[in-house]
Amino acid sequence: MELITLFIAAILVNNYVLYYFLGICPFLGVSKKIDSAFSMGLAVTFVMTITAVASWMINHWILIPYNLDYLQIVSFILVIAALVQLVEMFIRKISPPLYQALGIYLPLITTNCAIMGLALLAALKDYSFAKTVVFGVGSGLGFTLAIVLMAGIREQLDLADVPEPLKGAGIALIVAGIMALAFTGFSGMIN
Amino acid sequence: MPSKSVGAEYIKGLWEENPVFRQLLGMCPTLAVTNAVINGIAMGLATSFVLILSSLVVSALKKLIPSQVRIASYIVIIATFVTIADRFMAAFFPPISKSLGPYIPLIVVNCIILGRQEAFSSKNSVGRSLIDALGMSTGFILALLVLSSIREILGMGTFLGHQVMGAWFKPWIIMILPAGAFITLGILLAVALVIESKTKTRKN
Q1: Which of A6, B45, B104, B172 is deepest in the core (most CB within 10 A)?
Q2: Would you call A81 and B75 a contact, using CB atoms and an 8 Å cutoff?
Q3: Which residues of A touch B191 (CB under 8 A)?
Q4: Is residue B76 part of a domain?
Q5: How does the average pLDDT of chain B come out, rounded?
Q6: CB pairs < 8 Å spanning A and B
Q7: What's the rounded Cα separation, in Å, for the pair B92 and B97?
Q8: Which range, of A103-117, B109-123, B187-201, averages the lowest pLDDT?
Q9: By the CB < 8 Å criterion, does A3 face chain B?
Q10: Which pLDDT tens digit goes with each residue over B91-107?
Q11: Residues of chain B positioned with their CB less than 8 A from the CB of A21
């Protein structure tokens, strides 16, 4: 039950983009088309899940037993960079169509703060292994939901008459603000 | 680029190439920690510390770092300084460190820092890199200060914890919620664009 609550909370209540402000760069940069937004969301979900597992193992099997938790930041970022590289090679071998679909978004994920944020938040909240994995999947899906919704709105927005200075990032941020406001409505759902 | 004077190198970070308003870099911390002025200042100073020191080290080592592994090397250098900043805050300013939570360690993935190493420090002398890093840091702190002042004054009626609005003022709760951050920054970006185009037409 606790896991289900955590899962739903990660998607709706503590949405990565709209609550923690993580992954704003791809959220604004790759949300012009629904297709590419969806691919980006999937790539992030995928990497997040693997990162959740890897960072938990490193934290609990290496860093904590040897009292090295001050190395968290350095080791997490290196693990993420290596992992993204590995995932990229793996996908290229196993599923060329998926590799094609993800394209440039895969390497860009290394510098996505959502991934690093996931590893840090899970370590900070001291989640168990199962919780970390659920948190990873849920956060990834939450990110996908936010970026796809955003892309849908922005496709419509192209046709709207936006004041000149607000065009581009300005209006995108205001739309994100209104979305965040809508998502606050979920906060009463889970205590 | 080398023709730029030292002053111009510094000034460009404040407005012309302001990391937040003009280059749209480092949005995550900008939005996340600006619900109170004190958090904005702390975040700005921590980021500046990391940016300045990493710029110094990267520009000093630029000949020693092979270009194939430069990004990885930059990340390790940045992560080292972020760890120092994080530990320092946790030891000396525990309440601020607690309220900033994971955002101090997240400086490591702040695109401003990696971006400056790649675009500037890896090609310029130590002195110029220092000036550039100082300019960018000032620009970043300035942006955080503007955003957090607006949000704290309107959201809580206070500035640095002191009451500035009269008793008649009803705080706009939305400003301290995530939604307020997005909307305020969106409007500020538009204002920055208007000012920019006004000054451009005046110059012509």
Answers
A1: B104
A2: yes
A3: 165
A4: yes
A5: 87
A6: 116
A7: 9
A8: A103-117
A9: no
A10: 999 998 888 888 888 88
A11: 27-29, 31-32, 178, 181
Helix or strand (DSSP H, E) at A47: helix A34-57
Q: Pick the residue from chain A with its C-alpha nearest to B100.
A: A20
A74 touches B at CB < 8 Å: yes
Of A87-91, A103-107, B158-162, B190-194, the range with the highest mean pLDDT is B190-194
| Total number of domains in chain B | 1
Q: Could B111 and A121 be called an inter-chain contact, meaning their C-beta atoms sit closer than 8 Å? A: no
Q: What is the pLDDT of residue B54?
A: 95
Q: Please report residues of A whose CB lies closer than 8 A to that of B72.
A: 78, 81
The Cα B109–Cα B93 span in angstroms is 22
Inside any domain, residue B119: yes
Q: Which two tokens stand for residue B39?
A: 């958090």
Give the residue from chain A lying closest to B194, CA to CA. Answer: A165
Q: What is the pLDDT of residue B1?
A: 46
pLDDT < 50 stretches in chain A: none
Task: Check: pTM over 0.90? Answer yes or no.
Answer: no
Q: Give CA–CA dist B147/B149, Å, rounded.
A: 6
Q: Is residue B32 part of a domain?
A: yes
- CB–CB contact A171 B186 (8 Å): yes
- Write down the ipTM of this complex: 0.83
Measuring CA to CA, how many Å separate B80 from each of A131, A184, B33, B76?
Answer: 29, 36, 22, 6
Per the domain annotation, does B157 fall within a domain? no
Q: Which of B28, B159, B52, B38 is CA-nearest to residue B103?
A: B28
Q: Do A170 and B27 touch (CB under 8 A)?
A: no
Closest alpha carbon to A84 in A59, A53, A107, A58:
A107
Interface of A with B in 135-164 (CB under 8 A): 163
Containing domain of residue B142, as a range? 6-149
A chain contacts of residue B177, beta-carbon cutoff 8 Å: 180-181, 184
